[in-house]
Amino acid sequence: METSRFEKICKAVEANRRLIFTAHDYIWEHAESGFKEWETTAYLEKGFESLGYELHRAGDIPGFYTDWDTGKPGPKILVIGEMDSLIIPQHPAARKDTSCVHACGHHAQSAALLGLAAALQTDGIKDGLCGSVRLMAVPAEELTELEYRETLRAKGTIRYFGGKQEFLRRGYMDGVDMAFMVHTSYGDGSFEFPNRGDDGFLIKTIEFIGKATHAGISPHLGVNALLAQQLAISAMNALRETFIEEDYARLQLGNINGDSLSCRLDVKIRAATIEKINRINAQVNRAVAGAAASIGAEVRISDRPGYMPLYNDRLLGDVFCAAANLLDPDHPVKMGDDWSAGCTDMGDISELIPSIHPYCMGAGGRAHTAEYYIESVEKACVMSAKSQMVMLQLLLENNAEKARFILDAKQPKFKSKEDLFSVIDRMAVDRDLIDTNENGSITLKI
Prior knowledge:
- By secondary structure, this protein is of the alpha+beta class.
- The chain has 2 domains: 3-197 and 309-413, Aminopeptidase, CATH 3.40.630.10; 200-306 and 424-444, 2-Layer Sandwich (Alpha-Beta Plaits).
- The protein has 12 helices and 23 strands.
- The protein has helices spanning 3-14, 17-29, 38-50, 106-120, 146-155, 163-169, 225-239, 274-294, 314-327, 346-350, 377-409, 417-425, and strands at residues 56-57, 64-69, 76-82, 86-87, 100-101, 132-138, 178-180, 183-184, 191-192, 195-198, 200-209, 250-258, 262-271, 298-305, 310-311, 338-340, 355-356, 359-360, 363-364, 373-374, 429-432, 434-436, 442-444.
- It has a 6-stranded mixed sheet with strand order 1-2-6-3-7-17, with helices on both faces. It has a 5-stranded antiparallel sheet with strand order 12-13-11-14-21, covered by helices on one side. It has a 3-stranded mixed sheet with strand order 8-18-9.
- Strand 19 and strand 20 form a beta hairpin.
């Protein structure tokens, strides 16, 4: 890239530093959980419209997208900013009314997206470029408040729990050729790209149903659901030693509640491929059904798809690294070969088109904890916006030579979103795991 062009791009972002910092502070102070980001959406909508953008609003859920066009035909690149927060009551900055706090840095992404939108409107930025850019503010990446999302699903407002999944289903990503987002992280330098991919996961709710009795007079006639749950947890824990290291499998238990008559347990199953997730899920069903049957309890499961595994595109990743190294040559970045057991609904997009999920620095403390904060807004937001501006320049200059090269080499996991969703939909299951027969015997439905 020519030095003069690089400097022009950086100055276009720097000219909007105040806009970026103000957005960062506002969204931090107005943190909202998934599918509730109405204040954040309204703030960003006002900012985008003041810059001259026409918005396509999701309407019944938060979020929107808009297109920036060079006026010359070429690839369409999707740039994403996430809006939702976590719920951490112990965090010193958590909202008093909702306990929401941006302990993963999504507010910085949104501020950077607004800064990027402003910089793209600078005179002369379109010169020498072709194609278009879709800027998208998405809700609900953090998978929190599952009962609330289930109510939205039951009403038909959403079909999928992740914001990117839902936007994909609604057609908001139709016609897009590749996608990227830059997530906030912490560490030395300005950028990092350690992982070739992330796990996918499935969410499982298990209900154990006992039988009422008088505990003192007729304990032999009752079944304690809590004991069935306890046995099931022991059985699931016994599975862990059978997990294969290269599967990057994780089995996480949470939200245990109930009483001796009925109790519930939430389980999250993570692994590197959907096939491995389904295999482990079958093992969990067997363990849970066997444990419950051993004392005569009934058990019901409700499985819901989480997110698909993320596969970072190597060639698109090289473009990010090139942009990062132009911006911070003292801390060179290259795309790593590590695999992460973290999960993101960016994975669902990566199953269809070249996609990446790299990181910019600026945070302090561990993500998803009460110690998280933004240490440097300059790094977390301004440098993030600059990296995205430089990426777009590298992809769309010279008749989009780099973008076309990436597209020529792409090998999507699925040919269409319909094929993708057919696999995802099969993960949604509601059923009993035990049938009691007329003769008193039982059948495990595993």
